[in-house]
Task: structure prediction
Amino acid sequence: MRKRSRKFVAKILGRLWRLFRRWLFLTLSIGPMPEHIAFILDGNRRYAKKKNLKMGAGHNVGFNSLVVVLRYCYELGVEYVTVYAFSIDNFRRKPEEVKGLMALMKEKIDELLEEDTIVHKFGLRIKFWGNLDMLSEPARVAAERAMAATANNTGPVLSVCVAYTSTNEIVRAIKKSCSTKRDETAEGSLGFTGDPLRDGACGSIAVADMEDNLDSADCPDPDIIIRTSGETRLSNFLLWQSTLTHLQNPIPLWPEFSLRNLIWAILEYQRVYPYFEARRRGLAK
Result:
């Protein structure tokens, strides 16, 4: 009897919380809303240390926080969310830690594809940005499977940056642009197979060529980049795409990031929106 009573109360409280959230988000949407929010998920290891958790446990809690924050973002109407999950520089960590994170990545990707997850609720398209060849084989296969399984979904887009740095993304985009230019030349038609950078086969590469070959090619630039734990560095994340992005550095570690922090981030964005919009119009002329 007591269990039923507790379940009933929990159900009522859950409904009230969802109604409150709906009212809050409708009120917030009166102002300008971001189309794309990017997160640097900083502080997982510090959280584990703070809570005396074993190695890797902080990232596990961080994944749970990510699912909750994604739900809030999509309920708010944010169409694109990008997360910086694993930098190329992170491969310099201890081998056992990297191995554990690769295993955790595969596990969490597989979980996302199960029924009754946020992916199915919102019809998410999942994309992975970065040099996926650097991942462990199981993690890479899981990432490719997730992209293929959600490719035809029509809902919001979740982009996960793994084995990623912005400079590496730019270098890869340059090489792709050069290869395209090379293929458009007479040398390309004659079977030229040299290095397009070294052999001067690039021709004239425009900004549009570069942007067409970035990982973010079909994604608008982020309106907000949020780096948790109070850090004020971009750490080689979306350097090309963040010219007119509002940067925010809330104090909570990533596993502690809450709805209150997200609401505050959007209110701050709405406060500075007129300035950024004027800059955009000025650049568009």
